[in-house]
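Write out the 3D structure for:
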Amino acid sequence: MDENTRVSVGQPEVSDPLTELLRQGSRALIARAVEAEFAAFLTAYDAALDDEGRRQVVRNGYLPERAVQTGIGSVVVRVPRARDRSGSGIVFHSNLLPPYLRRTKSIEELIPWLYLKGVSTGDFSEALVALLGVNAVGLSASTVSRLKETWTDEYEEWNQRDLSGKRYVYFWVDGVHPQARMEHPNPCLLVIIGADASGRKELVGVWDGYRESEQSWLELLLDLKRRSLTMAPKVAVGDGAMGFWKALMQVYPSTRHQRCWVHKTKNVLNKLPKSLQAHAKEQIHAIWMAPTREEAEAAFDYFIAAYDAKYPKAVACLTKDREELLVFYDFPGDHWRHLRTTNPIESTFATIRLRTAKTRGCLSRKTALAMVYKLALSAQRGWRRLNNSELLTDVVGGVTFKDGVRTTEDVPPTEEAA
């Protein structure tokens, strides 16, 4: 066997010299870092001497080697051991290689990522071997089962987190119906995503409710407020068919309502013959893509004139939320693309529906919430900031916008908290 393809103790042969070179380099780098840690540890006890002037804390060889799973496969490491001659119980613990570390953080994140992206527990070992090589020891279906239990604990802790000091300028809300079988009929997971004053989007709340009832939304919003989310968002974006809006008026009455144009368009088109839907969609598109509110109102009136005589139900569906559909014109133009739809939730939960659809058996309430929570956090890392997020300072400060353009910098003396 060529020396370049020989693996350290406990590792099988590999046929990829580059991977082996990286692995050996990683081992050497880790060794140097741990030795530096140990040297600093010994230095801290330089003054600890016995009556004969000898050091009380000295090196005492190494702990047994162990393998740590990393993104480039298994890397064998060893940690220096200290001897305390004074009997005080001084022990060296490496921060880089804690005693029970068996997998790097990247691998710990890989395990739920694979599962949540649709890899079934039965295919788990095969997928890990393909990614990490044949030395992917201990990363099995049982590992996933144990992790699912920890996800529930993580969700419960997250769901009780303190929100004091948090401020969300925009909310996107929706009810997500899992595709998996659930313990209770008519399950609905209520989801809120928020954009903070820096323009960063993050998951705010995930709650299980009955359908999308006012009571379920009210409980979620009251819980957020109980945990000190006292500052009302400036605008909330959502579907018009939810009990959310009535609940919002009770908890954050100053928040403005923006209906989602994607949902509204779909609902209007469903009330028209298929032969007319393509053309009608273009005319609806002309409303919310108009550069000014005046032009949007004109396009609105044109749609009403064109379809009201023969298709009054389609027109009524569109016009009943006319004011709420055009709220975005009172906010920065750079934010319109974010405010006109609930796309942040829709795109994220397309993946969640895929994963829950692959789930065998019946999901409990806790399992479903934990799964959705972990999936959403995984997706959150890829959420993009709002365009020109610095404009949020103006929005929070009460600056007035007309057709997306700032019209005044007058700031109200006090801002409504809720």
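The longest strand covers residues 187-196.
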